[in-house]
Description:
Helix content: under 10%
Number of helices: 0
Radius of gyration: 19 Å
Amino acid sequence: MVYDTGGRETSTSFDGKLLAAVERDLNRHSVVITDYTAGDGLGVEHVPGFDRRGLLTSRTRGTQRMCWDYDGDGNRTRLTDTHGTTTTYVEIGPLWMRQDSGAAHRKIRAIRAYLVTTTLVRL
């Protein structure tokens, strides 16, 4: 591993082969991780996005993007995956309800409730 002067990782190699490179823009608080493990010599960029609380709000891998939303307490309230499917999380007392809907049809595909302890309870 190679580190910058601030002690942050800038690249990882194994047997002389570059596996990953990390580029940071400290002014914009952004990072780009380029993954070279596919073996074809081409890199795939991973770009995570964070809010002011440090919560992951987006992740782009190549041309695919996922997004997360959170409430004021930092609980995840919505996930939009790379296919445009939106999952909404709603608090119901001690349970969290998860509703999945496809972006194209906006149909509710599944409803499940989770205890705060992440134990699955089927409705």
